[in-house]
Amino acid sequence: MKEKLEALFNNIKSLCESEVERIIEFVAGILSENQQSDEKPDCPYCGSGITIKYGHRNGKPRFLCHGCDRTFMHTTNSVMSHSHYGRSVWHDFIRDTLYGMTLDHSAEELGFSHQTAFNMRHKVLIALQDLISGSPTVLSRLAELDETFVLDCYKGAKLPDGVKRKPRKHGAKASSPGISDEYVAICTAVQRDGGAVAMTVNRAKPSKEELEKVYSGHLEAGTVALTDGLRSYSVLRKQFHCLVVDVNHEEDKSFFNLSIVNSMHSYIKEAYVRYRGVATKYINRYNAMFSLAFRNIKDQAEDAFASLCQMGRTCLWHGVKEIKAHSLVYL
After folding, report:
1. In a domain, 66, yes or no
2. Is 70 exceeded by the pLDDT of residue 128?
3. Residue 185: domain span
4. CA distance from start to end of the chain
5. Buried b / exposed e across 105-142, counting CB within 10 Å, b at 16+?
6. Are 279 and 153 in contact (CB under 8 A)?
7. Torsion of CA 234, 205, 188, 249, to 10 degrees
């Protein structure tokens, strides 16, 4: 053992600072897991504190609840459930996901296959959807609303029956100019001093009914909604009692503008370039991430890791079979 430690320290001396930092984070994650294993947490199913240690499963400590007679582990109901990887790997992977890193980058950096990275990413995205649906972002005071458009995408699959266009290569344009049915709308809203909402429910320009579906539960009554004048936004006045303002008809452009929501559109488009497109059926999973990560990615990455990896009564774990079936978008 002594010889192995000496060889390890000699190898560490030859590493750059960033690589040493990664080693420190990895070791800190192991120590955190070991410290966790000595604790007896409350039951994630019934909330009872009457729990005892109950052996191990796959090398991880298991507990028994005397309140409901169910067994559980530190990762039960969290995004890490049934995973071979520890907290340090999930921490780095969730950070990579919110920073918009590609699957191949994460797979190479963290040492697993592209398919494993794909499965882990979608487990994270679905869990983020669960978090947002359980505690939806409500915009108030002053908000900017607009939509951006991305080409529909059947990445990784053949074009379904009924699609008239021919397959496109990465970077190709729509077959016809203007906003056509080849484009998918991402409806976005950003509070100037608060959160953001992004959701897709339609192709081309959204109707009143579609905007009502998108923003139901996300707009507080009395909110000043700055828009680009699309007539469909009048539904916000009728259904949500918002003050709808067309910025094109206002003289004070320093205040009446859509600069923040447009910056969110740029953020989304840049992510699409890195990803080389996103399959349309998965688009709302990514929209959930865009809503969360826009503006302050660094702090959100830490908060998301803490929320997704915390054991609790809400189940944030989804199996591989659910990845291809859970809350898909078909337009």
Report:
1. yes
2. yes
3. 142-300
4. 60
5. ebbeebebeeebbbbbbbbbbbbbbbbbeeeebebbeb
6. yes
7. -50
Residue at 126: amino acid letter: I
So what's the pLDDT on residue 35?
46
147 and 292 share one domain: yes
Q: Based on the domain organization, do 152 and 60 belong to the same domain?
A: no
pTM of the complete model: 0.82
Please check whether residues 295 and 183 belong to one and the same domain.
yes
Distance CA 187, CA 106 (A): 29
- CA angle in degrees (0–180, nearest 5) for 282-287-293: 130
Cα–Cα distance, 125 to 275 (Å, whole number): 15
pLDDT tens, 238-293? 999 999 999 999 989 999 999 999 999 999 999 988 888 899 999 999 999 999 88
| The one-letter amino acid at 96 | D
Task: Give all strands of the β-sheet with 142-151 in edge-to-edge order.
Answer: 196-203, 183-191, 142-151, 224-227, 243-246
Can you give the CATH number for the domain in which 244 is found? Answer: 3.30.420
- Domain count along the chain: 3
pLDDT in tens, 206-217: 999 999 999 999
Residue 195 maps to a domain: yes
Residue 256 lies in a domain: yes
What six digits make up the tokens of 147?
């939509």
From the list 76, 62, 74, 69, the residue with the least C-alpha distance to 48 is 69
Residue 183 belongs to a domain? yes
Q: Would you say residue 156 has pLDDT above 70? A: yes
Q: For residues 138 and 222, what is the distance between their CA atoms, to the nearest angstrom?
A: 12
Q: What is the pLDDT of residues 24-37, one digit of tens each?
A: 655 555 545 544 55
What gap in Å lies between CA 247 and CA 258, rounded to an integer? 8
Q: In whole angstroms, what is the distance from residue 290 CA to residue 323 CA?
A: 19
The tokens of 298 are what? 């660094």
Q: Higher-confidence residue: 5 or 171?
A: 171
